[in-house]
Design the sequence.
């Protein structure tokens, strides 16, 4: 039997081994991550999104991936903006440190913080809208100061450049007839989604809808190829699936897997999501029984609105006093204008708000080229044509 002294020695030995093992793991991880990126200065114009080697946690969702991608390409901009998630307690000096450390390795923190991701996405949009770094900081301070104390981040001024990725040439890319609409995506989805969206990137390329949808899709970083079409379907806030199409046959890509995620890349479109959901997708696609898909609950609305004609469309279960399903879709028309279709599956026609009908009467004076309100087969359909900003501000 071991003596108390011997047991104490053994205990110290085991603890020592554990500490050394942890130290080695941290060192190895640091070395691996530092190989992904070294921040040698302000944004490198020559860096293209397809060449980035981001860590696996950056791929958790499209917004997070966009934040890591934009910070990687434009550290000189992001490091001039404070972060309001109180990460200064972790030693962070700016928003950049939530994604990239001062030593140049990736940081996992940003992948789990909505404040960090939200700031980067907002900065991206403001920069693309032509705002200066001073204006960007002012807007970030105004919107995010409610969340906590900021990092102590100095303003260096306009001594940075912002990278741009060459626009995608869609001329030789196209979607298949089996996957070119929201309806098609729902038919491929096992039953139960409460929200879904489809985007045809080729149709919206070069239109006002392109920038509007840019943060909704997986970037070229994801597979090394741009997407032509993307579908997303949510069962809940933490359970979802996506379908991706690159517009090409027989391309070789590395599946994005790990951390409970799976990726089917052996057929078009690719499928991505939680492993359990992807298993359900694979089983469903073998037989493709439409009646067991997520399509039937939304069919009454989708058949009325001519969903196949939409460039960007979404549908959701949305219970109100007069309806239980809401559909929204966009397509470009002439002269840079956009048509928006809003549709509701009516459960109580008598409860439809009067302002919806009144809006048609005042539409012309409010900047609309077209405004039609129609009630047909328990579907209230509103078709509007105007500039995108006017449409997005319309409350119907």
Sequence:
């Amino acid at each position: 039997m071991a003596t108390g002294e011997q047991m104490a020695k053994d205990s110290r030995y085991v603890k020592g081994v554990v500490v050394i093992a942890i130290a080695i793991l941290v060192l190895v991880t640091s070395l691996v991550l530092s190989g992904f990126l070294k921040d040698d200065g302000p944004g490198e114009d020559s860096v293209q999104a397809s060449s980035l080697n981001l860590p696996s946690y950056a791929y958790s969702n499209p917004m997070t991936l966009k934040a890591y991608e934009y910070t990687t390409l434009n550290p000189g901009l992001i490091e001039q903006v404070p972060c309001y998630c109180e990460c200064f307690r972790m030693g962070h000096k700016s928003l950049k440190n939530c994604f990239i450390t001062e030593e140049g390795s990736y940081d996992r923190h940003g992948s789990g913080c909505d404040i960090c991701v939200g700031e980067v996405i907002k900065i991206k949009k403001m920069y693309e809208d032509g705002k200066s770094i001073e204006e960007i900081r002012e807007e970030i301070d105004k919107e995010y100061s409610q969340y906590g104390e900021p990092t102590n981040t100095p303003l260096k001024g306009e001594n940075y450049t912002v990278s741009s990725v060459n626009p995608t040439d869609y001329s030789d890319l196209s979607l298949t007839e089996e996957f070119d609409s929201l309806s098609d995506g729902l038919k491929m989805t096992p039953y139960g989604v409460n929200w879904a969206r489809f985007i045809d990137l080729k149709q919206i390329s070069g239109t006002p809808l392109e920038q509007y949808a840019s943060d909704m899709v997986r970037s070229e970083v994801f597979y090394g190829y741009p997407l032509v079409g993307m579908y997303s379907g949510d069962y809940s806030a933490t359970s979802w699936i996506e379908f991706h199409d690159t517009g090409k046959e027989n391309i070789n890509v590395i599946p994005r897997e790990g951390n409970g995620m799976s990726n089917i890349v052996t057929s078009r479109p690719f499928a991505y999501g939680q492993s359990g959901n992807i298993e359900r997708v694979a089983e469903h696609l073998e037989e493709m029984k439409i009646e067991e898909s997520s399509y039937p609950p939304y069919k009454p609305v989708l058949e009325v609105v001519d969903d196949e004609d939409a460039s960007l469309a979404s549908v959701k279960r949305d219970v109100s006093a007069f309806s239980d399903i809401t559909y929204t879709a966009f397509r470009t028309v002439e002269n840079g204008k956009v048509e928006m279709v809003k549709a509701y599956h009516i459960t109580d026609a008598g409860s439809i708000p009067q302002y919806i009908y009144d809006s048609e009467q005042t539409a012309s004076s409010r900047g609309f080229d077209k405004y039609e309100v129609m009630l047909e087969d328990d579907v209230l359909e509103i078709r509007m044509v105007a500039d995108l900003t006017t449409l997005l501000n319309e409350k119907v």
Q: What stands out?
A: Residues 1-50 have pLDDT under 50 and may be disordered. The chain has four domains: 1-35, 49-147, 182-295, 298-392.
